[in-house]
Each structure stands twice: as structure tokens, then as C-alpha cells.
Write a structure and sequence with these properties.
By secondary structure, this protein is mainly alpha-helical. 82% of the residues lie in helices and 0% in strands. It is built from 4 helices and no strands. It starts with 5 loop residues before the first helix and ends with a helix. The protein is elongated and about 65 Å long. The longest helix has 35 residues, at 6-40.
């Protein structure tokens, strides 16, 4: 790749890394807010813990997916070497194992055993949707 294009893709990779980190931090904030709202609705502490755990896990999954993309961009746009390829492979394996472990913890089933594929973003969205539905039900019951 030419010397003039490589810095551009380095910046793109850094942007992806920042987005991945922001996704995890924002997901943590969303997870805490949803857990607090669950407690505020007088649901059990176990329900709040599960909301926190699942939502945070989903945010981490989303962040890991973006970070893997950043690593791929950085590696394929730099000067290729066996060392870079091995490092990328190791990073992808570690992040994949982490992602699968988190997903198994959230869903309780191996990823290839699920009927529908879901990403970290979908899991996070589902958690927010469940919270909205519960808030709506609580507001309806109070009226």
C-alpha cells in the first residue's frame, strides 16, 4: 500500500478503536441506568443484577466486535509481515473466545446452537426495549 494511504487507514483504525471503547463505556452507563430503573420499579435485586449483567455483556460484545474490525483494518493496511499476521490472529482468537464466553453467559447456550443470530448491539437494543415495555406497564398500572 502506498505511503500516502497508510496514515489514512491508521486514523480509520484509531477511530474504530475509539468507537469500540465508547460503545463499552456507554453500554456500562446504559446497563447501570437500566438496573437502577429495574430496582426503582420494585423488582427484585436478582432481576436488576440480571439486567445489569446481560446489558453490560452485550455492550462488551459490541465493543469487542468493533475492536476486532479496528485490528483487521490496521493489519491489512500496514506493511504485511508474518509477525503482524500472527499478532492479529492471536488478538482475534482471544477476542473471539471472550465474545463467545460472554454470549454463552448471557444466553446460556452455545452460539451455534441458537436459532437466531444476535449481535451485541441487538442484545443491547433488546434490553432497552424490555426496560421501556416494563416502564410502560408500570406507568399504566399506576394510572
Amino acid at each position: 500500500m502506498s505511503e500516502t494511504v497508510e496514515p489514512f487507514f491508521t486514523v480509520i483504525a484509531v477511530v474504530f478503536e475509539i468507537i469500540g471503547a465508547i460503545a463499552m463505556v456507554a453500554g456500562f452507563v446504559v446497563a447501570v441506568v437500566l438496573a437502577v430503573r429495574t430496582l426503582a420499579r420494585k423488582e427484585s435485586a436478582r432481576a436488576a443484577y440480571l439486567v445489569l449483567r446481560n446489558t453490560l455483556g452485550a455492550a462488551i460484545l459490541l465493543g469487542l466486535e468493533v475492536l476486532v474490525a479496528a485490528d483487521l483494518i490496521r493489519t491489512i493496511t500496514s506493511k504485511p509481515s508474518i509477525e503482524d499476521a500472527l499478532i492479529l490472529g492471536l488478538i482475534v482468537v482471544i477476542r473471539t473466545v471472550l465474545s463467545m464466553s460472554i454470549q454463552i453467559g448471557i444466553e446460556g447456550v452455545l452460539p451455534w446452537r441458537r436459532a437466531l443470530l444476535t449481535s451485541g448491539g441487538q442484545l443491547l437494543g433488546e434490553a432497552v426495549a424490555r426496560d421501556r415495555a416494563a416502564s410502560t406497564q408500570t406507568a399504566s398500572a399506576d394510572s
